[in-house]
Amino acid sequence: EVQLVESGGGLVQPGGSLRLSCAASGFTFGNYDMSWVRQAPGKGPEWVSTIKRGAGSTDYADSVKGRFTVSRDNAKNTLYLQMNSLNPEDTAVYYCVVTNDYWGQGTQVTVSS
After folding, report:
1. pLDDT at 54 over 90
2. What does residue 90 show for φ and ψ, rounded to 5 degrees?
3. CB-based contact 83:10 (threshold 8 Å)
4. pLDDT over 90 (residue 71)
């Protein structure tokens, strides 16, 4: 059974940082591209970032490019998202996603003063 468990969300002031983690199980983590998707209140899902299997090349939405960094530790079956220079528009539930079919339960990120 595929399981994705996100953690690391919380309340942070504008300009602050957070690091999200996603613990994966039930599949061979290193063999799959992994993505982060977020959903803000009242809006549809927004793709944030993807890290490829193998060499681990990365891609980012323009809205987060230069501020967010995705990484993975295949030995620990864990995906990360380092988020810097956060602003209120980053407020959302952040989901870890594999194959577009499996989503975690999400972790809430709130950016507010």
Report:
1. no
2. -85, -5
3. no
4. yes
